[in-house]
Amino acid sequence: MGSNDELYEKSVLDVPKLQRYARKVAKAAHSKVPMASHQEYVVRQHQEVRRKGWFSKESVTVSERCAQGPALRYWELGRVADETFRRKDGADLYGHVHINWTGVDDGSMIILLEDGELRHVAYSVRDTGPHYPVLEMETSHTEWKVAAMRPHDYLLLDRPNLGRMREKTYSRKSGLLYMEELRRNYRVTVRQKGLGLSLALNRLLKRAE
């Protein structure tokens, strides 16, 4: 074990100190540093009766995407990717090139709320759809799971994923298959537990000056 790792393992995580600093930074950044927002949605279904032809009617199920609660306003302090994957599947159909693609982004994020509270976010993004030639049909779905900070969440930014994207291309009868995948490589980059989060807060504080 190297010296940096030894110092890190021997250090003590001071959660109350980080919480006090987070409240200080939120107060300083208020109205000075733009905040992002995230809105949760829920899909609700209901029945509607619609006319079918001249003399008959039918009952159909209608789905609505409705906002769930107020939007969450926050500053992002940092994120650590857990899985990133891209796949493009191309085929030459009747002389025309069609490319379908899938994207996956999963990971964890630390955010700071207006009141100075810290939160852990497990995020998941799914992108799918025809990529070429029908770009407008691309779709994206994002899910967030926001939770109160647990002790190990304060260490998240101490250990970023330094892995690189690995690229592969396969030739198949149906066309080319191109893939990108993030190789996991988590490494401690600081000497003090919680320093990654402290540095992220410091960067936000400097933006407020």
How would you sum up this structure, described in words?
- The chain has helices at 3-10, 15-29, 195-207, and strands at 36-38, 41-52, 56-67, 72-93, 96-113, 118-132, 139-148, 165-172, 175-182.
- The protein has 209 residues and is an alpha+beta fold.
- The chain has one domain (3-40, 72-207).
- The strands form two sheets. Strands 1, 4, 5, 6, 7, 8 and 9 form a seven-stranded antiparallel beta sheet that branches.
Give the key terms.
209 residues; alpha+beta; two-stranded antiparallel ribbon
Q: Could you provide a short overview of the structure?
A:
The protein has 209 residues and is α+β, with helices and mostly antiparallel strands.
**DSSP helix count?**
3
Structural class: alpha+beta
Order of helical and strand elements: HHEEEEEEEEEH
- Uncertain residue segments: 133-137
- Output mean pLDDT: 83
Strand percentage lies at over 45%
Mass-distribution shape = flat
Query: What's the Cα radius of gyration?
Result: 23 Å
The percent of residues in helical segments reads: 10-25%
The total strand number stands at: 9
Q: Give the total of domains.
A: 1
| Largest sheet: number of strands, sense, barrel closure | 7 strands, antiparallel
Q: Roughly how many Å apart are the termini?
A: 39 Å
Task: Describe the protein's topology.
Layout: H1 3-10, H2 15-29, E1 36-38, E2 41-52, E3 56-67, E4 72-93, E5 96-113, E6 118-132, E7 139-148, E8 165-172, E9 175-182, H3 195-207
Antiparallel strand pairs: 1-4, 2-3, 4-5, 4-9, 5-6, 6-7, 8-9
Helix pairs in contact: 2-3
